[in-house]
Amino acid sequence: MMDHMVIRLGKYLRIIGYDAEWDMGVRTHDLIQRANATGRIFVTRNTHLAEQYPPVRDGIILSETDPALQFRTLVEKFGLDTQTDLFSRCIQCNVILDALADKSVAEALVHPNVYRRQKHFFRCPHCGTIFWHGSHVANTCRKLGIKHDEEADWQSDHEAMVEQLRLYQIKDKRILAAMGRIQRHRSEKP
Fold it and tell me: What is the CA radius of gyration of the chain?
């Protein structure tokens, strides 16, 4: 259970597949009670927690202000697995994403370039958001210090680049053909 001070950290935990809960509309007092009742670890930066709120059954007070450093602290302290469920949850809804068996379902919902470049799409069963493993995956992993299979990303980027070159070649052939027609048309004029 994340308190209001560490919500970005909660998003990072969701990125690696952990069930991180928070609620901006609920007071810290009630979040602690909910964490105690459900057996969750209460995560905060509030150093005055014991003085102001009911006792926390299981919790951690972080000293770091940077969410990426907070993330690394939790990974080390609790031995969190950063690989197995990477990018498997909706960051907004905290539910497991569904893999789309048919890529064409995403076609009308994403930019055409994204659709062309990506082979696999995922959808949140709660909010309907479409996800894919684009360059943001490697960037986020780098930011959080998570080992990531960049070879797979490179392969995806390479395939996208080859496809783009193919499209440019087709376009260039059309331009050259049009230029040839213009040239012939000019030479035919008296």
Answer: 25
Q: How many residues does the chain have?
A: 190
pLDDT recorded at residue 49: 87
Integer Cα distance of 19 and 140 in angstroms = 18
Strand partners, 43: 2, 60
Q: For the chain, what is the HEC assignment?
A: CECHHHHHHHHHHHHCCCCCCCCCCCCHHHHHHHHHHHCCCEEECCCCHHHHCCCCCCEEECCCCCHHHHHHHHHHHHCCCCCCCCCCECCCCCCECEECCCHHHHHHHCCHHHHHHCCCCEECCCCCCEECCCHHHHHHHHHHCCCCCHHHHHHHHHHHHHHHHHHHHHHHHHHHHHHHHHHHHHHHCC
Mean pLDDT per 10-residue run, the chain (190 residues)?
A: 96 96 94 96 93 92 96 95 94 95 94 93 96 91 83 46 49 51 52
